[in-house]
Design brief:
Shape: elongated
Structural class: mainly alpha
Radius of gyration: 20 Å
Helix content: over 70%
Order of helices and strands: HHHH
Distance between the termini: 69 Å
Oligomer: single chain
């Protein structure tokens, strides 16, 4: 095989897949989105506790945030089989359950 044939086979094999740069950019975007989501939840918690004095808003915001974290960690556990992701998924799922109880109590 010559160089051109190898390149053609590689292009065909990797067609539709992300390259390393795209994957790194998506990972960074996801990280920033998680940070912003957490900051919004903190802001909502402070506003709901000290401004509008309604803790239900805070519990609802944290419920959504921890549900997203649970889903993300479960997905990563299924794909990579890292037990640390399973542990974080369980902990964040417990936070979801806790916020459900607080929201509807």
């Amino acid at each position: 095989m010559d160089k051109e044939q190898i390149l053609q086979m590689s292009r065909k094999e990797n067609e539709g897949k992300q390259d390393e740069r795209e994957q790194r950019l998506e990972d960074q975007a996801y990280l920033y989105a998680r940070i912003v989501g957490m900051l919004v939840c903190v802001a909502l918690a402070l506003i709901s506790d000290y401004v509008i004095i309604n803790p239900d808003v805070s519990h609802a915001a944290w419920l959504v945030y921890f549900a997203m974290e649970t889903t993300s960690n479960l997905y990563l556990y299924r794909q990579n089989h890292k037990t640390s992701k399973l542990v974080w998924a369980i902990l964040s799922a417990l936070c979801v359950i806790g916020n459900i109880f607080l929201l509807f109590a």
